[in-house]
Amino acid sequence: MFYMRKSMRNVIRNWYKSVLIVLVCALITFFLFLYIGALHANQRQLTDLPSAMPVYGRICNLNGSLNTGLMVSERIIEGLEGSAHVAEFSYTAHIGAALNRIDRDRVQEMEIGDLTFPLAYAANHLGAYPGIGEQAVSFLPGVNPMILASEEAVCLMREQELERHGLKLGDMIDVTLFSPSYPTDNYVLDYRWLGVYQVQIAGSYSESWSDEASPAQVLFPSQWIRKIHRENEAMFNADSVRFRVAHPLALNDFKAEMKSLWLMSVLSQAGHSHRGIALVVGDESFIKAASRLQDNIMLMKVFTPFLFTIVGLVGFVVSYLLLHNRRPEIAVMRSLGMSRSGCFLLLLSENLLLVLSGSALGTVFALFFTDMGIAQIYAVVGLFFACYITGTVSALYMVNKFSVMAVLSTLE
Q: Within this chain, do residues 266 and 358 fall inside the same structural domain, yes or no?
């Protein structure tokens, strides 16, 4: 208590110097909050960047001319489905379908006009097919859009097709299915017979047009179609593939995984092909924004230790200059019996009081300009206090190290 009472008296007596120290500490604390706040703001922007600027990818042919009408192997589909780097994965597959029964031996002479639904597709969800949303589909009671992710023998049919063939929701129909492909990359579809299946019409949708795809007449669940291919030992190919990169900040890991699936970059000089073996990722804008933020964060982190070192130097210089003129006062206290350590503790108590007051004032002002949490506030104030007091202690040690008789003789 003695040191506290004496410190308060000295602070009041040397009020102009005390005010100067408080203002210096307040300004430094305020600047540190702005600096650390800017660092955290950059880190938050980097963390939030994937949601603010999502990165999407798609499969195309090697020269990049086709996004639909592809042949994407099931190996690639399985790799993308199981990847932790892929989100919102969607794909479609072109399927040949006919209401009339077509025997296997007729496939060789079959033409596209023999198909009742030449534009039938399989999809893993409604969003996979452009232009069809959940609001545009009418489902049977108890059926929801997740039906397309199942292995159930159902379909969604365009309303025009229902009217044309006199069908309605809930009807059971016999459908002959075919697996189309482009053998040797020619422009003519080749059909492989898969079998005749009884399918329930579980939903209907209005006609939908898109720049990316022709209007689908019928949609089947993709898992069911893949199951049929496996049972017939037929090769399943997706017609289009799209997805969102789940972790854009780990693009290098994502691209390394895509290379393991034998997906290549687009080669514009390549010849025409329907094989979906190239990957297109719209990451240019994201990379520019992320690189800029990462550079800012790295630069600020590198400079942070130097900043707190400067705080310590400021604490030393300010304390030394203001305390140097108080040597006569210290000499008198020493001559009256106060020990060197007692003088040191008294001066340190004064500075602790002033530094705490200044840092509290700077913190209050900084709270109007930053939105840092309690833990971050304690960290900034604690680091400032530790660095500044370290400089002050060094200054006190040097100021308190003098000959009492030499100072007193100059006063006489």
A: no
Tokens matching residue 275: 């094989």
Helix (H) or strand (E) holding 290: helix 284-324
Between CA 381 and CA 391 the distance in angstroms is 15
Residues 202, 162 share a domain: yes
- Does 148 lie in the same domain as 42? no
Residues 77 and 218 reside in one and the same domain: yes
Look at strands 117-123 and 218-221 and give their pairing.
parallel
Same domain, yes or no, for 244 and 259?
Answer: yes
Asked if residue 293 and residue 205 are part of one domain, the reply reads no
Contact (Cβ atoms closer than 8 angstroms) between residue 121 and residue 93: yes
- Are the C-beta atoms of 69 and 98 separated by less than 8 Å? no
Q: CA–CA separation, 335 vs 342, rounded Å? A: 12
Both tokens assigned to 49: 């960047």
Predicted TM-score (pTM) of this structure: 0.78
Distance between CA atoms of residues 140 and 118, nearest Å? 25
Say if residue 26 is in the same domain as residue 90: no
Q: Among 243, 260, 282, which residue terminates a domain?
A: 282
pLDDT in tens, 17-44: 778 888 888 998 999 999 998 999 999 9
Q: Are 140 and 170 in contact (CB under 8 A)?
A: yes
The range of the structural domain enclosing residue 138 comes to: 56-282
Element (H, E) at 80: helix 74-81
Domain stops at, among 219, 248, 282: 282
Whole-number Cα distances in Å, 231 to 198, 221, 224, 406: 16, 16, 11, 105
Q: Which of 324, 402, 291, 312 is nearest to 355 (CA)?
A: 312
Same domain for 108 and 14, yes or no, is: no
Sign of CA dihedral 271, 272, 277, 283: positive
Cα-only R_g, the chain? 38
pLDDT digits (tens, 9 = 90+) for 354-397: 888 888 888 888 888 877 778 888 888 888 888 988 888 888 77
**Residues 224/152, Cβ–Cβ less than 8 Å:** yes
Looking at the 3D structure of the chain, how many domains does it have?
A: 2
DSSP assignment letter at 153? S
Amino acid at 159: E
pLDDT > 90: what percent of the chain? Answer: 43
Phi, psi of 201 (to 5 degrees): -80, 105
End-to-end alpha carbon distance in the chain: 33
Phi, psi of 310 (to 5 degrees): -65, -40
Helix (H) or strand (E) holding 259: helix 251-260
